[in-house]
Design goal:
mainly alpha
């Protein structure tokens, strides 16, 4: 009996040569240079989004608390501006009625009623302009507050400028109130300055900057 006979059914089966793996490690890719970890099969891994100032934090997924506060203040200010616009509009209507009544009583160009009518007409125009200005500012406040959710750098810069200008106006009113010595003339300007300061600072701090700079899909 010979185990070397290939026709012998009781002999030892012949040895098969080892087969190479179908997809050896690194198949189709050049070897990675020293110090670089190897990439997985397929496309290389994509880097994560960069963080906002600080380096280790990712973009915020929810609106930061300071921005939420500034947004609420914008809506409160818009409500005050709407009420102010309605008030000035009502006073302008009264001035127009006075102008019409004085004009009806006037009998000549030298009549005192004629001069009074002209003055009331000018006052009507000024009051109407103030009412329209207050309504426009109210629309701007509402627009900025709404745009906080999806707005970018344009909304951020506009909010900072708007808050800074409002703070300057509030400081002027506060100085006038302090000079008058009346406590009632100080409360409203002081609240206005606080609101304007938060609206100005909220988009400038790191969390606010990252919120407006986050990627949108």
């Amino acid at each position: 009996m010979s185990f070397g006979d290939p026709n012998n059914p009781y002999g030892q089966p012949p040895q098969q040569p080892p087969t190479a793996p179908q997809n050896p490690p690194g198949y189709g890719y050049p070897p990675a240079p020293p110090g670089v970890p190897p990439q997985g099969y397929g496309y290389p891994q994509q880097p994560a989004y960069p963080g906002y100032p600080g380096g280790n934090q990712m973009f915020p997924q929810t609106m930061p608390g300071l921005l939420v506060t500034a947004r609420v203040f914008l809506f409160i200010i818009s409500a005050v501006q709407i009420l102010a616009a309605l008030g000035w509009l009502y006073v302008a209507a009264l001035a127009n009625d006075v102008s019409d009544a004085a004009d009806g009583l006037s009998s000549s160009s030298d009549d005192p009623f004629n001069s009074f009518s002209d003055g009331a007409g000018i006052a009507t125009g000024v009051l109407l302009f103030i009412a329209l200005l207050a309504a426009g500012l109210a629309a701007l406040s509402i627009t900025l507050g709404v745009k906080f959710g999806r707005g970018g750098q344009g909304v951020r810069i506009t909010t900072v400028i708007y808050g800074a200008l409002g703070g300057i106006v509030g400081l002027i009113m506060l100085v006038v109130g302090l000079d008058s010595g009346l406590a009632t003339a100080i409360v409203f300007p002081l609240i206005w300055v606080v609101f304007a300061t938060i609206i100005t600072v909220a988009p400038v701090v790191a969390s606010g900057t990252a919120w407006f700079a986050r990627p949108r899909y």
